Amino acid sequence: MTPSLRTLKHWNQWLTQQFLGCDLLAAERKMLTRLLHNHFGKHALLIGVPHQVDLLSTSQLPSRFLVSPMAHHAKMPGLIESDFYELPIITGSIDLVLLPHTLEFIDNPRQLLAEACRIVKPEGLIVICGFNPYGMWSMKKIIKKNKEVPWSSHSIPANKIKSWLHLADFQLEKQKYFLFRPPINQKTIYHKLHFLERFGKYCYPLLGSVYIVLARAKVVPLTPIRLKWKQELSKVSIPTSISGHIAW
Prior knowledge:
It is built from 7 helices and 7 strands. It has 248 residues and is of the alpha/beta class. β4 (94-100), α3 (109-118) and β5 form a beta-alpha-beta unit. α1 crosses α2 (19-36). It is globular and about 65 Å long.
């Protein structure tokens, strides 16, 4: 098993075996439901791990698929086993692409993002979830000696993600930060700090532990080309003395 695949496997397990992972999924599901309720189309695609498949239900699109190199570990409909760097999807065929933290657990996030942008339809959406390097969870990552998942992730600032999307001709539509509580392992104390979510939203909104960036693929307008006729008409003279009618 390659290092990236091993990390993805641990990440997949952490999402459901740790209460912080379950809370993260619940918070992202709630936020995505709010952001995607007005987006329509047909095909939605999530690029990630099997335990994130429920995030697809936040959209109203009827055809939903998951692309993951771990597809053989779970039997579920709409699951495509594929390498992240060469997606087996037709260019410009997907209305919605979700990347929930996937860029942070692979070796070449720029290449995956380019592939994800390639398959989005004109006017389609790409949604990226990431750990904020300046949030509470990343602060624990700095002081934590044991670099286990998710603290082993390579946090990518939202500004860098937006820069990459801009180069791919995507236009930013929305950006949200959430999860302002510190990642305390004691479940009871963690839930008692729920008030920090509302407090942080208004007092320090850019310090949320997780961000969501939503961008839309631009439509390149077709510029009509005006043809300029440069060929001169042949100089043919018709004698005016010809009697009769000229047949066209």
